[in-house]
Input
Amino acid sequence: MKQRIKEESMTVDVIERMKLIEVAEQEVHRRECELEAKVKRLAQAEKGRLEVISGANHQRALTEAAGQAEAIAMRGDAEVLWKTSIAVSQKFGTIIRKAVKARRNAKCHSEIFCPPSPIFLKKNKKFLKNAATFFQKN
Output
């Protein structure tokens, strides 16, 4: 009987140790899962943060490129307008010289205004009309 009690006691000890080992293994597994979840969450949060930063940098680059393109276009428009105004002022200079010459030839005695000759108006009618339209637009 003592032998049997001893055997039963040993069996209980073995089972107890096996259960303790099983509980310890479960605890290790639980901690691994917990650690993995924390690391994964942190990694996903970092991934999200980097995606937001990347998107913002991409949008900034697109906006800067659009602004530079618009600036180049505006410089081009300004250059065209400047060249056009130079051409117009040169043409007006020519017209004014012609008007002064026509006034001298017409022997106009008025100091304030001498109307241009019909020939002068006929020759420069198209240009005067275009110039008036140009300056009304701008």
Observations:
- Residues 2-137 form one domain.
- The helical segments are 2-106, 118-137.
- The radius of gyration is 48 Å.
